[in-house]
Write a structure and sequence with these properties.
homodimer; about 200 residues; alpha/beta; Dihydrofolate Reductase, subunit A; 5 helices; 11 strands; DHFR-like_dom_sf (chains A, B)
Chain lengths: ~200, ~200
């Protein structure tokens, strides 16, 4: 069976986003700095970037699709990624608001799932076939799958930035046992893969 | 000039010790589990363990020497490490209580410094000669040197444990810029060396 993976970039003090997230600054203050490794040194982290993009289906939380707050959800919002999102695969968005599937260019179709994380996973597995299902984020969605024992591999990309505030990835995640299976670094990030033990 | 280094083991959620530190449990609940890499797989992390023990002088906080609370400080306390502590070098203990130097077996002498972190560093540099000065801990002492711009290299040993509470290393450390210079992992820990930029 395909695996359930999750790639997340965190600050050295454990934040996935800085303080004061907003529509203008969806990653919060200084949150963009966490992702320098994906933009400034793509070659140095080519394998990890490829790993993020190779899943057969993705699952994301409502905030990752539409941002915090009431926002533009009911106004024909088509995501943050322009007309050709980078997923090139079905993306299952967890939400309480029903909506018809939204087909974008390049193979990405957003499906809106209103009956919970297990249903989203079943649908994503079906869509992914033999390929992996990736939990795309945000942190709250990742925590839900991790806490529920529904994730096989957590891949942390640990930035050297110290944000000092914001949304922490692992707070309240509960009793989870992780085993490091691979670690390597560049001048901008430390990549660590963890197997989630059941 | 010799460098100022600091080795610290942290949980994946950023804690150096679990909740409810006490004389019986100086690392707090489940805090001992962070250090499994130093006891269960010494060979796999031999270089890092050697790195911890090669300094020419050490600096530690009062709590690391004597534990939290009023404790046994004035009762002839000789540290946690038995008659032959593992430092084999001068150790400068930051405290508000004057006390005569305490010579132990194997070359460790505890010196008690009452006039602050810069004085302790000057004395440790003098004692270390060409060798490095290591900030031995605890977290509060490490933060003080880091925030004051007096540390050259921070070496984090990131355990896969999630403690969910306790004392966090980097909370309140302020505006510090770190550059990862080496990362590698074992099945129990991820070792990352950071250069502290001035």
């Amino acid at each position: 069976m395909s695996r359930v993976t999750c790639d997340l970039t965190v600050s050295l003090d454990g934040y996935v986003a800085g303080p004061n997230q907003s529509l203008d600054e969806p990653l919060g203050e200084r949150g963009e700095s966490l992702h320098r490794w994906q933009f400034e040194q793509r070659e140095a982290s080519a394998a990890e970037i490829a790993g993020i993009l190779e899943a057969g289906a993705y699952i994301m939380g409502r905030n990752m699709f539409a941002g915090p707050g009431p926002g533009p959800w009911d106004q024909g919002w088509r995501g943050w990624w322009g007309e050709e999102p980078p997923y090139h695969a079905p993306v299952f968005v967890l939400t309480h608001h029903q909506r018809e599937p939204l087909a974008m260019e390049g193979g990405t179709t957003f499906h809106f799932v209103t009956d919970g994380i297990e249903s989203a996973l079943a649908q994503a597995r079906e869509a992914a076939g033999d390929r992996d299902v990736a939990i795309a984020g945000g942190a709250q969605t990742a925590r839900q799958y991790l806490s529920a024992g529904l994730m096989d591999e957590l891949r942390l990309h640990i930035s050297p930035e110290i944000l000092g505030g914001g949304e922490r990835l692992l707070d309240g995640v509960g009793d989870v046992t992780l085993e490091p299976i691979e670690a390597r670094g560049t001048g901008l990030v430390t990549h660590v893969r963890y197997r989630v033990q059941r």
